[in-house]
Amino acid sequence: MLPEAQNAELRAVINSRAVPAVVATRARIVLWMAEGRRRKDVAVLAGVSLPTVDRWVDRYASNGLAGLEDASHAAPREQVTARVAARILALTRATPPVESGLSHWSSRQMAGYLKRTEGVSVSWHYVAKLWRDNGLKPHRQGTFKLSKDPRFAEKVADIVGLYLDPPGGAVVLSIDEKTQVQALDRTQPLLPMDFGVTEQRTHDYKRHGITNLFAALDIATGQVTADCQPVRDGARFLAFLRKAVKPHAGKDIHVVLDNLSTHDTPEVRTWLAANPNVTFHFTPIGSSWLNMIEIWFGLITRLSIRRGTFTSVNALIVRIRDYVAHWNIDAKPFTWTATAEEILAKVRWVQTNVNQLVDNNAQ
């Protein structure tokens, strides 16, 4: 068994996007061995030989996290050491200590806490960048949902392959619908007790209806094609699909999309049969995060829709169209960095820990 601090640091290394996949695998080996697993089982899980398992366990015992890195890959320009970065990530993923009085970490609170309790000096700018690089948002809570799709690994490899190495001359489109986008009219009456003190306001909401946003992202250029419809059904999806592929006539087109019934109607299948240059690639069940258009949906929601005031559905649609037009003026593609092997390794690690938890509770 490892001390909790070392355990947390190793898990932080495993979950960090900034850590090379080979180093993350070595950290997994150490953790699995510390859990009492058999060497041969660890070797199978990690895809390495038995001597390799022994080597990284011994290196970690002698040199800690530094022992898991290759000397030739040292990065002298890093602002802080790997151990300090791992410590920050481990603290971020844990609830702040009771004595701090915090419900969640802020970058400034984290930097101050490290200085007070451990004498480690880092800027809050560094903490914020580290969180961004690792996709951490301490002010939000989330859970990792394991997909039950029997073809999970196959679909991950297929879609990630399109992102990292798209077929030459082909177009890859990421398509989805954001449903029931609400047109809200936000009014802000002054509270009576605030007169003469501070002008604090509270929101009243009037709902004027909804629209459904269809969008297609060209992963090579970042250009977005979008349309708003009053309802979401197979006919409207097919109409939007025709609109999205029209600019790419004569090319092979690969479409990444979710497992929705509207994406697999008889009409859609008939259209695909008549257009063999278009190929669908479905994300695994419960894994819409693999669909790159979700990143763009997050941006338009935060930057344009969430805090907007819309007196009608038409006003909401105009805002959406304006945002799309502005986006396409200087569109930039998103960069997908995780390989299929890295994703599957993380899923295996989560599955292993879930199974262990179930086994422990059953005893």
From TrEMBL:
Entry-linked SUPFAM superfamilies: Homeodomain-like
Species of provenance: Dactylosporangium salmoneum
Name of the protein: IS630-like element ISMsm5 family transposase
Pfam family, one: HTH_32
InterPro entries found in the cross-reference section: Homeodomain-like_sf (IPR009057), MscS-like_channel (IPR052702), RNaseH_sf (IPR036397), Tc1-like_DDE_dom (IPR038717), Transpos_IS630-like (IPR047655)
Tc1-like transposase DDE domain segment(s): 173-316
